[in-house]
Amino acid sequence: MAKKVVATLQKKEGKNFAKVIRAVKSEKTGAYTFKEEMVPVDQVKDSLAKS
């Protein structure tokens, strides 16, 4: 699967996007889960700032 993501990001359109991975702690169990999203490069800071 990693190869597919890398290949997608190598295209001309994909160079303006970044993959953001955040660790989110569950209030119920206390375990961490990871949320991944593709965001435009200029919106990375806004994406990380939101909770």
UniProtKB/TrEMBL annotation:
Q: Which InterPro entries match?
A: DUF4295
Designated name of the protein: DUF4295 domain-containing protein
What is this organism's lineage? Bacteria, Pseudomonadati, Bacteroidota, Cytophagia, Cytophagales
